[in-house]
Structures are given as structure tokens and as C-alpha cells.
Amino acid sequence: MIMTIGGAILHGSRRSSFRGIFVTQAAVHAPSTGKTVILAVSSGGGHWEQLMIIRKAFSAHSLTFANTIEGLGEKYNLADCTVISDCNRNKPLSTVKCAGQVWSLISSRKPDVIVSTGALPGLLALALGKLRGRYCIWIDSVANAEKLSMSGKVASYFCDLCVVQWQHIADNSNSKLKYFGSVL
Fold first, then answer.
1. Rounded mean pLDDT of the chain?
2. Would you say 178 and 163 are in contact if contact means Cβ atoms under 8 Å apart?
3. Strands 14-16 and 9-11
4. Of 7 and 157, which is predicted with more confidence?
5. Do residues 71 and 95 touch, judged by C-beta distance below 8 A?
6. How far, in Å, CA of 38 to CA of 53, rounded?
7. What ranges make up the beta strands (E) of the chain?
8. What is the pTM of this model?
9. Which of 139, 169, 175, 183 has CB atoms 3.0–4.6 Å from 163's, for a disulfide?
10. Are 66 and 80 in contact, with CB atoms under 8 Å apart?
11. Is-contact 178 10, C-beta < 8 A?
């Protein structure tokens, strides 16, 4: 199995795979290819590693990646990977620069779905995508074993789907947080 997070998601009265989220819940397709256009964004490091673990779940779709470290796209042989500026809450100018880059990326690629495994660059992509009516999915890092991350808390207010990788976090929170397993 590619990832246990894709093992079982309830959609209506039937179970579908993680891949099915994009086909059945997003239910939008690129006019030229008939494929859902997905933008997958994360910071480098562990957030990127988790995104790479689940990337095969998106393989049937038109896919663009964005990360914050030069050379990661080549390392994973990704056909379409863009580098964006890293940012965090302590560096507001970097955040503005990253937001501009993400806005341009969303404008040029026109994704139907935006998915992120974390940190502020991914959260910015989801927030800006939501402003443009995109289906947004946040997957909180497995490293957040005790509580939802700060970015995850923000994402839970506007994302269409917020996934956590620890059962007790989903159990002790609002119904918007979903647990389907862990990517590791």
C-alpha cells in the first residue's frame, strides 16, 4: 500500500481511496486533459518527505509540485517542480515574497486541488487557493503527535479536508479533522 491514509475515507455511503478524494469530492477536471490539476506544496525537510511518500496517490492527475529547496524536484525526478521562497511567522517580508510566488503559481497552473503537508508556504498556497475557489487539503505532519500544528489550526478553518496522522488528535477536536492513518 502506498499509504495508510488512503486506506479508507468515507465519502457518502461508500469507501474510496485517497486518490478518490480528488476525483469524487473535488469533481473538477482540466478541460484539455480531463485530469484533475493538483498543486502539491510543502516546505523542505520532513514536510517534503511526507509529500513524496504520498505522491503516487496523485499520479493519475496533472501534478505540479512546489517546495522551498533548490534541487529537490530533480532528486525525485519530478517533471514539474517549482522552488518558492521559504518563510515563517518570524520573517514577514519572506512571507510576503512567498505569497506573491504562490499567487503567481496558482494563476499560471490553475489547479483544481491544492494539497499541502505543511509549514507556512503550504498554508499560504491553501489560503490563496481557497480565495480562488480551489478544493484545499491540509495533511498535518506526523511529527505533531500531541496536538495539531499552528498552521494546521489555521488550515482547519477554511480547508475542505484537514487530515491528521494521530487518532487521538482527531478524536479530541472538531469534526473537521479526519484521521485515516499515517503516511509513515
1. 82
2. yes
3. antiparallel
4. 157
5. no
6. 16
7. 9-11, 14-16, 37-42, 62-67, 81-83, 113-118, 135-139, 161-164, 177-179
8. 0.83
9. 139
10. no
11. no
Residue 6 scores a pLDDT above 80: no
For 66, phi and psi rounded to 5 degrees?
A: -140, 135
Q: Return the minimum-mean-pLDDT range out of 5-19, 28-42, 88-102, 114-128.
A: 5-19
Which string of DSSP letters, residue by residue, matches 109-153?
H--SEEEEEESHHHHHHHHHHHHTT-EEEEE--TT--SS--HHHH
Residue type at 46 in one-letter notation: G
**Among 14-18, 39-43, 49-53, whose mean pLDDT is lowest?**
14-18
Average pLDDT score over residue span 53-75: 94
Dist CA 54 CA 5 (whole Å): 9
Backbone angles phi, psi at 80, to 5 degrees: -135, 95
- In the chain, the domains with their CATH numbers are 4-179 (3.40.50.2000)
Q: Name residue 182's beta-bridge partners.
A: none
Using an 8 Å Cβ cutoff, are 112 and 135 in contact?
yes
User: What residue has cell string 496536538?
Assistant: 147
Residues 166, 5: Cα–Cα separation, whole Å: 11
